[in-house]
What does this fold into?
Amino acid sequence: MRSTGIIVDGYSSGAGFAKEFSKRGIPCIHIQSQQTIPKVYSHTYNPQDYIAECIYQKNIDSLLEYLNTYNIKFVIAGAECGVELADLLADKLDIAGNKINLSFCRRNKHLMIEQVRTTGIQVIPSYRASTLNEAVRWASTQKQWPLVVKPLTSAGGEGVFICQTLNEVKN
It folds into this structure.
């Protein structure tokens, strides 16, 4: 049986992965982690580059049963939104991949920075706010501008604001 790869959410910077693997004789299956492709990525998806496509229905056993009909050799995330499912699939298929105990740190920006901090690497100040008041209070204690305000699990520039003043943080 021919070796096959899985690309979870083959969008954005990962949109070309399947074509490159195909050039090297490795066909890929596309697994969509969400019911719909995020609008920001929809123009980057190339379904013709895959031998099969599947939308994850939140039933890992059903998905694994389908995937076991292939000779899966690797699982990678094409876009950041596919990281957690790619990690889970690699774990369940018992193939090399990131360990699932830290999957959430590869998506949540605050936890990502805190995980890096635990290794002794110097990181920029970070704060996870649950309310606008918390964000404003923390920003007002900082002595350096600009500050970056970003959703915890966004990707790329989605929802990113570079703030030069406290009023920009509030807005």
